[in-house]
Amino acid sequence: MKNVRLFAWIGAVVMAAMIVFSLLTGDFAAEGSILMGMVWGQMSLVDLYVGFLLFYLWIWYREKSPIAKFVWFIVLMTTGSLATALYILYVSYQSKTKEEFFFGKNA
Length: 107
Known about the structure:
mainly alpha; 85% helix; single chain
């Protein structure tokens, strides 16, 4: 679990730093419209969100509270891989075993 936490922390810090950097230095609307004007930009966005939805299936399975499921969905769809890293950290600190990590406490 130690390695999982290390990689999740690294991922969370890198993603948070890049989000802040991009918000401060980039032009989201202008650059986003350029990316969406390219087929590979569209393909990359579809690929990204399919991955987020697949990861969300794990969240949906693990979380028992409808509110937690909803909140994690919103956070995942808006912050992407940052939310993925944060959820992995959250789950890793909650879990005592690998089974709990993957399936939750009531599995």
